[in-house]
Amino acid sequence: MIRATVTSFALSFMLIATPGGARHDESDPMGLTAETVLTSTSLANLSFAEKKLAFEDHVQEVYSRTGLQKAGLSYSVFERAYTGYHNFKQDELTAADKQILTVVDFTKPSNQKRMWIIDLAASKVLYNNLVAHGRNTGNVKAEKFSNEPNSNMSSMGFYLTDKTYYGKHGLSLRLSGMDEQYNSKAMERAIVLHGADYVSEDFVKQYGRLGRSLGCPAVPRAISGDVIELIKNNTVLYIHSADKAYTSDYLNVERAVEGFASLQDMLPTNA
């Protein structure tokens, strides 16, 4: 019963919180609208367990509505990335004018599209593209990671995008590593997002894999400019790996749940 009640609340919250969200169906046997649920219920008044159920339903709804399963992003990876995104939002570290989340899944081989750029406000995958890993991280698959200078390896974890500059790869995007043990030396190592000719379908057809960078998440040159302009200036990037020992302060589920509840209670009840 608790799950059903909280699920109804979470889904109703999604209808009102999402621009262009669906409205009440007159055939709904429960006769509930987003407005009536939000008027009568506050997440702040629920127990943590109930808030957590509401958050879980919210994440599943975002995943479903955005079509991420069809786009090839696993739910478990998205859930981690989205939990981190909420914690960045709670800390007021992200851009106020856009809700962009970028996910890279380095458990997939480099000959597959393993980068997703998601517009959470529009519930839309804007890009699903190839992305390279570091030359010492592996051949077809990313297997070894490092935070050390001159390792020529990729670094896992959460990043905030920074400012752009023009370098040897053209327009490039600085990345600020936010996980102390895993990617905090990204700036020192000049780990940036840039375009590269060795990241293309033609390269995959010829070699069975992408070329490899010096540790940077390189993307196809044809889209690099648009991608960089889209995600620059304080959006969240999460690079996932198979390392089960990886931990991050941004994976704190309790903080994400409370942040989600606080966000709901800031919404107008007659939106």
Mean pLDDT: 87
What is the number of E strands? 8
- Give the spatial strand order of the biggest sheet: 3-2-1-8-4-5-6-7
Rounded to the nearest angstrom, the distance between the terminal CA atoms is: 27 Å
Instruction: Name the poorly predicted regions.
Output: 4-40
- Shape from CA axes? globular
Radius of gyration: 20 Å
Order of helices and strands: HHHHEEEEEHEHEHEH
Helix content: 25-40%
Q: How would a crystallographer describe the biggest sheet?
A: 8 strands, mixed
State the oligomer: single chain
By DSSP (H or I, 4+ residues per run), the number of helices equals 8
User: What would you call the structural class?
Assistant: alpha+beta
Strand share of the residues? 15-25%
Protein traits:
18% strand, alpha+beta, globular, 271 residues
Description:
- The protein has helices at residues 2-17, 34-40, 48-66, 75-90, 186-189, 201-207, 221-231, 253-265, and strands spanning 100-105, 115-119, 124-129, 157-167, 170-177, 192-196, 219-220, 236-240.
- The two termini are 27 Å apart.
- It is 34% helix and 18% strand.
- By secondary structure, the protein is of the alpha+beta class.
- The chain is built from eight helices and eight strands, in the order ααααβββββαβαβαβα.
- The protein has an eight-stranded mixed β-sheet.
Sequence-ordered SSE layout with sheet pairings:
Elements: H1 2-17, H2 34-40, H3 48-66, H4 75-90, E1 100-105, E2 115-119, E3 124-129, E4 157-167, E5 170-177, H5 186-189, E6 192-196, H6 201-207, E7 219-220, H7 221-231, E8 236-240, H8 253-265
Parallel strand pairs: 1-8, 6-7
Antiparallel strand pairs: 1-2, 2-3, 4-5, 4-8, 5-6
Helix pairs in contact: 1-2, 1-3, 3-8, 4-8
